[in-house]
Amino acid sequence: MYCCHCEKRISDAAVVCPGCGCWTKNTAPTAFNAMPAPSPKQYIKSLSRRLRTYGTFWILIGCLVAQICIPIGIQIGEEIGIAFIFIAAVFGLSDIIVGAKYCRTANKIETKPKNIVKQFDSASDGVAWLVFNILFGNILGIGLQIYYFVGIRGYVLRNEHIFAVYNR
């Protein structure tokens, strides 16, 4: 018999696929498993959607920083005004770049899902970005980093057994 989710050959008596962890046709319906288990492709789509949302919000924050700081800098003038324009350029642009990176990662994962768990295994990028946002008082950025750790990285690590199918 073949798994209806990952199409791996499995034992005819198997209740759960050893490849992807999904229920097989041999599972008797109960209250616990009455709903069909999502396929690994559905997990990929969910992860991709989460990454795209995360990236889009970073792009919006970057644009917001530029919209606020550049006019203030122009209005103030002199050194303080130049500082506001510098903040808009550095922080706004870095937020937009980070957002574009995660939108690109979402597209890459959806089209060529490989080594997904490895991409989110290390927390160093997220921690560095969180510290950066705490130091500069970016409340929206702190909220987005919490979403990253719980909604994206946590999602991947909680479902590591399903994403492991794509580690080949």
Description of the molecule:
It is a single chain. The chain contains 6 helices and no strands. With 168 residues, it is mainly α. Helix 1 (40-76) packs antiparallel against helix 2 (78-111), helix 1 (40-76) runs antiparallel to helix 5 and helix 4 packs antiparallel against helix 5 (139-158). The longest helix is centred in the middle third of the chain and has 37 residues, at 40-76. The chain is elongated. The two termini are 22 Å apart. The model has no long low-confidence stretch (mean pLDDT 85).
> How large is the share of residues in beta strands?
under 5%
Distance between the termini: 22 Å
Largest sheet geometry: none
Number of strands: 0
Q: Oligomeric state of the chains?
A: single chain
Radius of gyration: 22 Å
Unreliable runs: none
Q: Find the structural class using helix and strand composition.
A: mainly alpha
Write the layout of secondary structure elements.
Layout: H1 40-76, H2 78-111, H3 116-121, H4 124-135, H5 139-158, H6 160-163
Helix pairs in contact: 1-2, 1-5, 4-5
Question: How would you summarize this macromolecular structure in one to three sentences?
Answer:
The chain is mostly helical and 168 residues long.
Brief descriptors of the model:
mainly alpha, elongated, 168 residues
